[in-house]
Amino acid sequence: MSFVVVGLLGRRMPRLEWGGWVAVVCSGAAMVVGVLIGLGEVLGPATYVDRRYTWLHLAPSSGYPNGFSLVVGTLVDPLSALMLIVVTVVGFLVMLYSIGYMHQDRGLPRYYAELSLFLAAMNGLVLSDNLLEFFLFWELVGLCSYFLIGFYYEKPSASSAAKEAFLVTRVGDVMLLLGIFLFFYEYAAAGPVGSGGWAANGFLFVQNGLPFLQQGPPVATDPTILTVAGIMILGGAAGKSAQFPLHVWLPDAMEGPTTVSALIHAATMVAAGVYLLAVTSVFIGFTATDSLVIVAVGGFTTFFAATMAVVHPDIKRVIAYSTISQLGYMVLAVGAGFSMVALYHLFTHAFFKALLFLAAGSVIHAVGTQDLFKMGGLKKAMPLTAAAFAIGGLALAGIPPFAGFWSKDDVLASVYSTLGSHPYYWPFFLLAFFSVFLTAYYIFRVWFLVFSGDRPRDPTLPPAHEGPWVMRVPLVVLSAFAVGGGALVFFPGFQRLLLKGVGFAGSLAAGIPPAYTATDLLLSGGGVGLALGGLALAWWLWGNGRVAPLPSSTATRAMRNVLLERYYFKAGYDWIGGRGIYTLARAADFFDQFVIDGTVHGFEKGFAALSDRLRRLQSGLVSDYAAYVVAGLVTVFVLLLLVAPYLVGRFGGT
Amino acid sequence: MSLPEIAFALLAAVAVVTAIAALLVRELVHTILWVAVFFVDLAAIYFLLEAPFLGVLQLGVYAGAVTILLLFGVMVTRKRIFSREAATGIGPVAVALALLTVVFVGTGLGELPQGEVTIRAYDPSTLSVNLFGPNGAWLLLLGLIMLAAVSGAIFLVREGRE
Amino acid sequence: MIPILSLVLATLLAGTAVTFLAGSRARWAALGTALAFLAEVGFLFLGYPGWPGYNGAMVPGFADQESYAWIHLYWMHVNYTVGVDGISLVLILLTAILQIATVVYSWTESKRPAAYFGLVTLTCLGSFGVFVALDVLLFFLFWEAVLIPMFFLIGYWGGPRRRYAAIKFFVYTHVASIVMLVGLLALVFYSGATSFDFASVYAAARGLSPVVQVFLFLPLLFGFAVKFPVVPFHTWLPDAHVEAPTGGSVLLAGLLLKLGGYGLIRWAVEVLPVGFAHVRPIVFVLAFVSILWGSVLALSQRDLKRMVAYSSINHMGIVLLAIGLGSSLGLLAAVLLMFAHGIVSALLFMSAGTVHHTFGTRDIPSVGGITPTTPALSTMMMTGSLASLGLPALISFPAEFVALLATWEALGYLVLLPLAVLVVTAGFYLWMMQRMLFGPPRGIPADAHDVPTHEGVAMGLLVALSVLFGVLPGLLVNVIANSPVKGFPGT
Amino acid sequence: MTTLGPTGFLALSSALLGIGLFGILTRRNFVLLLISIEIATNAAILNFVYFAAFAPSAPLGISGQSIAVVLVGFAATEVAVGLAIVLALNRAKGTINVAEVTELKS
Amino acid sequence: MDALAMAAPFAPELVLLAAALLVFLLDVLGVRHLEALGAIGTAATGTSLLLVIADLGFGPLGALRTLGASHLDAVPAPGTAPLYAFSSFGLVFQGLFLLAAFLVSLASLSRPSHERGAAVFFGLLLLATLGMLLVAIASDLIFLLLAIELTSIASYILVGYTRRDPRSLEAAMKFYIIGALSSTLSFFGASLLFGAYGTTNLYAIRASAGAVGYPVLALLGFGFLLAGLAFKTTLVPFHAWAVDVYDGAPSDVSAFLAGGTKKIGVFAFFLVFLGPVLYLRGTGGANPFAGPPFDIGPVVQVTLAVVAVLTMTVGNVLALLQREMKRMLAYSSISQAGYILIGVTIGTAPALAGATLQVLAHVLMKSGAFLVVAAVAGLGVGPLIDDWRGLGARRPALSVAFALMLLSLAGVPLTVGFVSKFVLFSAAVQAQGLFVWLAVAGLLNSALSVFYYGRVLKAIFFDPATPTPAPSGAAMGAAGPPPLGAGGIGYARAAAIGLIAVAIVALGLYPQPVLGAIQSAATHFVAGGA
Known about the structure:
The complex is a heteropentamer of chains A (about 650), B (about 160), C (about 500), D (about 110) and E (about 525).
Chain A: H1 2-10, H2 16-43, E1 49-58, E2 68-76, H3 78-101, H4 108-127, H5 131-149, H6 156-186, H7 197-201, E3 206-207, E4 210-211, H8 223-240, H9 249-252, H10 258-267, H11 269-284, H12 288-311, H13 315-335, H14 339-367, H15 378-381, H16 383-397, H17 403-418, H18 426-451, H19 469-484, H20 492-502, H21 518-542, H22 554-564, H23 569-617, H24 622-651
Antiparallel strand pairs in A: 1-2, 3-4
Helix pairs in contact in A: 1-2, 1-4, 2-3, 2-4, 3-4, 3-10, 3-14, 3-19, 3-20, 4-5, 5-6, 6-8, 8-11, 8-12, 10-14, 11-13, 11-14, 12-13, 12-18, 13-14, 13-17, 13-18, 14-16, 14-17, 14-19, 14-20, 16-18, 16-19, 17-21, 18-21
Chain B: H1 3-24, H2 28-48, H3 52-76, H4 91-109, H5 124-132, H6 136-158
Helix pairs in contact in B: 1-2, 2-3
Chain C: H1 4-21, H2 26-46, E1 63-72, E2 77-84, H3 86-105, H4 113-132, H5 136-157, H6 162-191, H7 198-205, H8 210-227, H9 236-243, H10 246-269, H11 273-299, H12 304-325, H13 328-359, H14 375-388, H15 396-411, H16 416-436, H17 453-471, H18 474-481
Antiparallel strand pairs in C: 1-2
Helix pairs in contact in C: 1-2, 1-4, 2-3, 2-4, 3-4, 3-10, 3-13, 3-17, 3-18, 4-5, 4-10, 5-6, 5-10, 6-8, 6-9, 8-10, 8-11, 9-10, 9-12, 10-12, 10-13, 11-12, 11-16, 12-13, 12-15, 12-16, 13-14, 13-15, 13-17, 13-18, 14-16, 14-17
């Protein structure tokens, strides 16, 4: 059934303008199927549909008494159903939006082809029934991301950003790969299934018809390896989800079309990292160290990215930093042991972030620039967009009753609930908590800069207007999700999706649905208050179309520069990658050419010199030749009578 | 010291001296003379060793034919007859090498039974029986060598008339 | 039974002869030969267990074995013995594919075409021979027989420094062969094998003491390592690759390097398991150094071909590593990786060749943004690069995946090194793609046009294959896995 | 019956050999080279004659003298060939000084 | 009838002798056409070759067999040893010698027909060949040395045969002086051996080797012989003459020297040194220098091994930078001698067989190479390797043939040069122990040799032609005789070269028939059967 989805999307060779419609129709069909599957899981009892095909197989031998096989297959379970809904719905909407947004671009067939391939791969990732296949699609998704970031490949910055994205996520991928190896080698061998070790079992999420997650947390054999495995998997997730310190690529990835940013770099692909953590948290049960590291990464990233978003003048980058920040919340939640909460936030975030991006896209489409300080007063020309952006912003900022409030609040609440037993989480919780304020501030800074006021700050901007209906419809639909998506959690079916998805029964299900005790209420209130404060600050600073509200004192300027330069991380990486490694490579090249090859040439030269020296003995004078003969004779005698007897006596014959 | 030994010592000394003299004198014609003496001296040694046939042969072939051949060669290339022998660059090395060879050969002597050794006397008839009998092939080969040498030498020398 | 292997040899031999004599129609002769070869290889595959559609029982040992007396002296029995197992079969398939691709790619070669195509065919003949030979001398003969046509291909059709490169190539590999020959001879005579046959040597080598095995293994390792090539014996490779004509580079990278891997598996690892086990640390060091060195150096290259050449060193380092693991999983990975690298490096070298004659240079910084001008070329180039950096659904991925998996299994955290190098590998390919394919157009001559048809066909074939086997690696794996893994401890 | 100790005898033969070698190594005149070779050859001939005494049996010993006879003939032939070469060389290059005949070298 | 029966085994030798005499006779009678005399020489060597092959018991030629099978490898009764003996090993070598002579004489049919002295050329060629045949049947040291001298003296003249050419005469002079010196050393060595063993019969020496009364004297004798024979075999450091002589001599003669006469030294080495190597074990003797008693056999082996390695290495190193083609070939010939010496050093039947095959290969390769050089010189190409540039494009067939010879010299597979080295070095490995290092040294040397052969191939095939192409056959034709057939090379020479090229490949692919004969011969020889 789900292969149909993949298959449908796999057929992707749209041509010209209406090729986009082909893609839209395909993704629409995929959405229908995906949503149907999702609904099936929501409405009915949780089912696990697993189909498997052997991809690579080694017959049993002495090394592998049970043989060794790698399989591919599809697994539909609550978790994947959830993701499937997100992916297909957002995917369809973005596709639709693209029709309007991208209509004047060259290379449309390529765009739709790549986007479709991405959707196919993303679905494949979601539906994978084992880590190998997961990894396979994971990489494919990364590839599509690479292509789409570099869509405007004539722009050096775009191709450079694409490369950066690929490379940075590659670092994560490599860690993930090692994590996979570690995890299965050390752990599944002794796991609950244990019918001959990991080699026989492959990398399945599912054994004996049941997912691992249904079989209870297994016993770890070597906690060290498990810890390392967890950190490695976190590394993979951090790469994909742009967590510190592998976050640098995501802002640059905004070089791609906005639609791509919406779909890939906000809603789906970047969430795959969180999805990965959620999946694996279920069946490797991160150790305490792992959890702390994950919490630390998540909490710190949340704050870290939010600070950078505060000052940035590029509309898309601000949203990108916000994505990083929000992903940080999710990672934080996973680390604290609340995967379902993370997924919940993932779900809501996908919609409102896509909404924000699409709205931003709409703006960019209208005014042709991404510079916030050139925009202004667009509220009148684009009321729908302004509204949509506001809804998205509110959702992001966590103002009730928008979707973001419920999930973010849930994250904070659930993390807070662990603070008692894990005091080390405190600083990260506080960072995340304070980030709520920053979030509200930066997103509304954007809103005010773009929409409030009467006229654009840069008068040369073309007059703005709303996009065609294909662009408006997705905005509306997503706005609806952004408003009401959060409340879905109060539906039991959706709850079950989250809970079953991460394989925990009730006792561990704190936070789903949010339980509002007194503390929680205080927390929520505090959060909302912070958000409102941020909003207010934004209004106070930017509310009426001002250009530069703050005096550029030295202190703020320096800080601003640091933030704009992203704490010099990018420069540092560039230095390492560009200067450091390249210099090393040049040095190695020098070594290769002059030392290794030079040694060989040295032999050559040595022989040549010897040859030359010997050649001079060939003087042409026959007496010399006779002298050689006599010298040879004497040498022979020396050998025969002195050297050889000595050698033979010494070494006892031949 | 017995008489043959005294005779041998004298003859040997003469042989050595003449050989060295032949190589060191400055004028080629004198060299030929010294060589002739050297060959005659050797013939005497053969007689002493009770190999009269060889002695005669030495006189005839070496002291006679070879000496005359050498003289002939010297005469024909007479432009150079009285020229001084060119200075040698490897004199010391040559002496050293020659001496080393002599030393090594000399060590072989240490093994030989010391003291008097009786020289076997063979009369020429025994020799000829041997020479034409079981070892006839040697002479046959010598004949072939001479055939090749003569035909080749004539060819080389005849060239001038072309 | 049809002596199918001899038939193939005869086909190739006749093909070579006909090609040499065919004059201007040589390319047709070469193509015909290649196609006939491929057909016969297909026949071989159908008869081999593991291939879909095979219905016979799995035969341990070698299939299609033939043996005839060749040089029989009192003290040595050399036979003409040929046979295949899964490992050789896969590499033979690679030979056939690359032969066709090379011939098609070089379709318009105008400089002495008869000789060119003849030498190409001869190279493939030699490679085939290496893969089927089951006799020490026969193996060595074919091994060396590959050298000579390649020497001429580089030296006559190559680039500006071709003569130097040709001689360097020849001398390096010849020295290695010689050391290897000593090893092989010692193997025969020290083990007291009754003949030069693989089976005989294999059986006799069981009785050797560990010390002797180590001493026999080392020269063999050296001989094969140069061919691989393993750092620090690699410096012939960049020069040879850069100077060789495209067809030559393709065969060099695609086939010749595989000879080293195959030789190591067949004649060193399988025959001398104990020696191998003792020498493994050395093998690992060499492999790791090669992996690291190859990719770091690739990073610093400006010449496209040179970059690909160094990446070959990197990949073959992984092959060596996989072989060194001494597990059947590692062996599988090694063979798979060799096949993958054969296809991918061929594709990349063809791309480089096309870039060179389309844009007049291979200097990466001086050409850029070629995608709008030559979309087909840049697509295929991109596919090649991505395949080479191990992207899933392309051919290298399953191979590298299994290789790393096996590495982890055997070496634990040491796997971090090849893993980390994967990033570097991705780095230089992406850097190259960013520079050459993307960005604003730079250094593109006015008359530049997309890939010529014949080159496109050749490259397209390889692209298709890399996708096919990337998605369905099982096709090859089953064949490889069905070859009895000889010589590993416990088997 | 003559008796003669080997020491002096072999001293003579080795001395002659040494002198011959010395001559070959140091002389530049072709004719002198020929003479040097003859001196050395004569040392060998002397040896054969003398070692006849050491042979295990008389019939074996006689071959020493036979060899000497043959060698004398051979040496003469060799000298003849050498002289032919001297003459040809003298005609072609106008010199018989080997130090001046060094066109072929290195 | 009795005389006839006595003479029958010597049929090959007699054919040559008769032909030589016929040539001289015709010369005297005024018949001086090169073609006529050359035809006699070619026919004689060819016939003789057939007779030798027949004597070896080669089936189809059985009718021509003149040597009774019972005479072959017969062990002579002690004390009655004649000066000669028919060993199958010797016959094999006779075949090799005759092959070289046949090829050279065939190719020489294409020498410029206006050239003077055809009679001397072919007559001496036949006499030299006769000498070589006699070497191969020698069983007596003096017989051996005299036979060598026959060949030597004939070849002194052959080298100086182009009488007007000062280079040729200079070569003859050097050849003569070093040759005479070496023969003196050989005879001196023989005299010492005669003193030590009381006989000059090699089989007797071999048999009584274990009971030598004066080991040091014997060693000295072997040392002198080593030096003397090394001259012929061009071992380092007794090699220096060879380069100049091969360079200065007419190329056809160089072919004969390198491919033919040099090999008598090899055979002589086998004949003389196999005894000490194989049998002088445990005989001991007071070593005047080193104290304790020692085995002579290993001592000789060590010495031979050193000389072998030295020869290979120096020959190769010297060839590296050589710019003249003939000198390069000469040095390569020297290094090849080193390989061959390995066979003697080891002294086992496989080693002997390998060395013999190497000799065969070298006969083909080196005489072939020099014949090509002669042919190319006839096309007006200069003596430097650089002068050969672009020849591959102009004369593809000739170039390919030459390439085959060079590749074979380098020991590249599918050529006979490879098979011979393979058998030889595998024998070294088989002998185990320190002999393996001989194989390693040999193989490394053959790797080294690839450098200079590769350089030549590069010049011929890769380098562009020299800017001013030398005048071709047509231009020369205006001044001299009409151009020769086969594109200025001459049909006979082309045939000889083609024959060699084919043989190189054929034997490289399927050496079994020849190798089979060689192995049984070598086995007999080592076993001590006369």
